[in-house]
Amino acid sequence: MTTRRPMIAGNWKMYKTCPEAEETAGALVQKISDAAGVDIMIAPPATALTTVSRILRDTPVDLGAQNLFWEDEGAYTGEVSGPMLVSAGCRYVIIGHSERRQYFGETDETVNRKITAALAAGLIPVICVGETESERDADKTFSILDKQMENGLKRLTADAFKPALIAYEPVWAIGTGRTATPEQAQEVHARLRSFLEKRFGAETAEATRILYGGSVKPENISELMALPDIDGALVGGASLKPDTFSEIIHYKSAS
Ligand code: PGA
After folding, report:
1. Residue nearest to atom 7 of ligand 1 (CA)
2. DSSP assignment of 114-134
């Protein structure tokens, strides 16, 4: 059986100017220098990527972007490409976050193009899926997630998909203070893993890390991480403060 290395990722969303990002990243690397057995990533806004990249050099914290466009270059005002993110020091890129789907018109089809472009650029995509509250209430959670996975991962081979991570983020739990119960999260993660097994085979399904996201905080990280199919967390609000994010990263010493 594969042991999946835990991953704690911070999504800073549209917070922090360059000086603020520099200060936060600097404080974080001090606090987590003793963290072992866990991959760590922070995704600052695009403007702060190069600044934060300098701070993260030779530390255990990797850099991620929050979005990319699927063409490498061209007349696409306002967009940033995979090779550009790589040149700014990124190793990861978050794709298909529910806020991108909700406010910026992203669909499973654009998510698919972005995943393909990220992998081609050598970036590790963190692919976000999740149902809204009304979809959950209407018992559509599994069918929505199946559709997001099916269409988002279209045409990808198991080999191409291999580096990718999945993040399950129930939309009703993002920034609301409402976390999915451990049972709800585990049930969905197991379902996502069985989807991956059908789609890519047992070996890939077993090796793929599936993160949970939605109001993760120091108080609930340990119980989430104790579940068999939860391999890490994608943290929004609680990743903005170095103290709080460091506590989440050190969940092992707390449990
Ligand atoms: P939250 O955000 O931790 O603030 O709920 C999570 C996310 O949107 O990735």
Report:
1. 236
2. HHHHHHHHT-EEEEEE---HH
Q: Which two tokens stand for residue 28?
A: 């974080």
214 lines ligand 1 (CB under 6 A): yes
pTM, entire model: 0.97
Alpha-carbon 92 to chain mean position = 9
Pocket test for ligand 1, best of 235, 239, 245 (most atoms within 8 A of CB): 235
CA 142 to centroid of ligand 1, rounded, Å: 21
Pocket test for ligand 1, best of 95, 129, 216, 241 (most atoms within 8 A of CB): 216
Q: Kindly list the domain boundaries of the chain, sorted by start residue.
A: 7-254
Side chain identity at residue 3, one-letter code? T
Beta bridge partners of 7: 39, 232
**Which CATH superfamily does the domain covering 7-254 fall into?**
Aldolase class I (3.20.20.70)
What pairs with residue 212 in β-bridges? 168, 233
CA of 165 to the centre of ligand 1 (A): 16
CA 131 to ligand 1 centroid distance, Å: 14
C-alpha dihedral over 78, 19, 34, 182, to 10 degrees?
Answer: -50
Per-residue pLDDT tens over the stretch 27-76: 999 999 999 999 999 999 999 999 999 999 999 999 999 999 999 999 99
Residues designated as active site: 97, 169
